[in-house]
Amino acid sequence: MSAIDGLPPLRDVIARHDLQAKKQLGQNFLLDLNLTAKIARAAGDLTGCDVIEVGPGPGGLTRGLLAEGARHVLAIEKDARAMSALAEISDFYPGRLHVINGDALEIDPLAYLTPPIRIVANLPYNVGTELLIRWLTPKEWPPFWQSLTLMFQKEVAERIVAKPGSKAYGRLALLAQWRSDAKIVMTLPPEAFVPAPKIHSAVVHLTALAEPRYPANPAVLNRVVAAGFNQRRKMLRASLKGLHPAIEDLLVAANIPPTARAEEIELERFCALARALAAAPR
Ligand code: SAM
């Protein structure tokens, strides 16, 4: 029996349910339940919250979330092989774990949940980034979630929290930091996973702000940032030329030197430029 709950150790679960990791599903499992409980704690106070967990696999993190007091966990897992192992966890925590066998990119979890909602996941990195971008760009703000606690490749985590002037600074940093607080709360070596991936990983915790940090129209801001970073070595007066015939004047109005490059510019200035662009006659 494990220390955090009365359920069997994850190695036994994996052996009994024949859950050997499959590469094509990006499966690198966390088997240390003290570590999964620590990740659950990094998500904040879970008591009184519904939690969406994406990619529970054999359920290590799921058990951490439930042991840390989550009111209700909705777990979405693509691999049908994991269902019997996850059913043992829902039997152990009656009424608190609901498992859906499906693709998280195609399922709308909202129908099953009551706010406040937190999202926690250790996902394959490509799926994780795609979901992060969706969660950061909902139709309405504030979003349906209060926080996101997500495992990424360390290099991607660094892009999410990057500040101006660094190589990692770009669209992902601006998108994440415009309407959330984003922090790296844990870094993990390859050996924390079975099988061990080649790279280090990190957990990023994002908390949704009630309001964007600076006002801007999301579509215009996105256009400015995309154009600026698509040609990140160019001066902004060149990389943004296609956005408006008087782009140099708009840059000056937003307090941005037209000869600066995107990676030197702070979020506040990008928002000012998006506002100037939205207000400029064509
Ligand atoms: N959460 C478990 C842990 O920490 O040990 C498993 C992590 S493993 C890196 C990623 C999990 O996501 C696998 O169980 C995999 O089957 C699942 N997965 C992959 N793509 C998915 C998708 N599109 N939707 C839902 N689950 C997915």
TrEMBL record:
List ligand-binding residues for S-adenosyl-L-methionine. Answer: 28, 30, 55, 77, 103, 122
Which residue spans adopt a coiled-coil conformation according to this UniProt entry? none
Which positions fall inside the Ribosomal RNA adenine methylase transferase N-terminal domain? 35-210
Reactions mediated catalytically: adenosine(1518)/adenosine(1519) in 16S rRNA + 4 S-adenosyl-L-methionine = N(6)-dimethyladenosine(1518)/N(6)-dimethyladenosine(1519) in 16S rRNA + 4 S-adenosyl-L-homocysteine + 4 H(+)
Q: For this protein, what is any one GO molecular function term?
A: 16S rRNA (adenine(1518)-N(6)/adenine(1519)-N(6))-dimethyltransferase activity
Q: What does this protein do?
A: Specifically dimethylates two adjacent adenosines (A1518 and A1519) in the loop of a conserved hairpin near the 3'-end of 16S rRNA in the 30S particle. May play a critical role in biogenesis of 30S subunits.
What's the protein here called? Ribosomal RNA small subunit methyltransferase A
Name the source organism: Paracoccus aestuariivivens
